[in-house]
Design a protein that fits this description.
This protein is of the alpha/beta class. It contains 11 helices and 8 strands. It has one domain (7-242): Phosphoenolpyruvate-binding domains (TIM Barrel), CATH 3.20.20.60.
Amino acid sequence: MKKRLSVRDIRRKKVIEQSQEPIVSLVCYTAQMARLINNQVDIILVGDSLGMTIYGHENTLSVTLDMMINHGAAVVRSTDIPHIVVDMPFGSYEESPEVAFRSASKIMRETGAQSVKLEGGEEFAETIFFLNQRGIPVMGHIGLMPQRIQTLGGFFTQGKTEKESIKLMNDAKSISQAGAFSMVIEAIPEEVATDITRKIDVPTIGIGAGRNCDGQILVSHDILNLFGAFTPKFVKKYGNIDENIVKAVTDYSQEVKNKKFPTPDNIFTIKK
């Protein structure tokens, strides 16, 4: 019988040899989707991108701690194999390590997740160390950080200059040394991500970071084409669920209008 993957299991998946299988990760927010992917992935990230994909916001900044807890708990209840990570939303950890601990402990306690994720590099090394020392495993996140969309001015590739790539390397080393058990690296050149992966001792999980990270992560809504508002270059679509939904609803609508639904098979009658 399989058991849920732990922090230790994920750390052991650091790719040292090319023969080792990369870490398979997906972002997921709902019980139904979690049940469907339970047996196919190593990590499920309950991402704050749910602000856009589920709630229709323009970015992730409107996401609350309660929203993350509700969705995190649903995903945990619906799975028994993947390691579950829950995003710490904007404003829940930046003020101080103590504030971060209160937020993270609430997430862990009320969802049953195995770890949390926060965005940031060197500036959050102290916070990551503080959480780790108090029993809260932390996944880091460097490169493009959606919670900083206002200061970045948009969703742009990071690490394209020598100065930026040096900063990314320093960020990666700082948070891994602080105790992060793994890190997401988002939207940076493959060469930079490869260099980081080779020089730190925790797994890197790429999203738009090339082929040589220790694992890959995409948003389940993106690979299924369930969120058609914008498709980043790094996304590959493995399905067209949106087209299936539109066709099914169109067929239903037409049958109702033409009085072809419900049929005798879909109705109840009085027993004689």
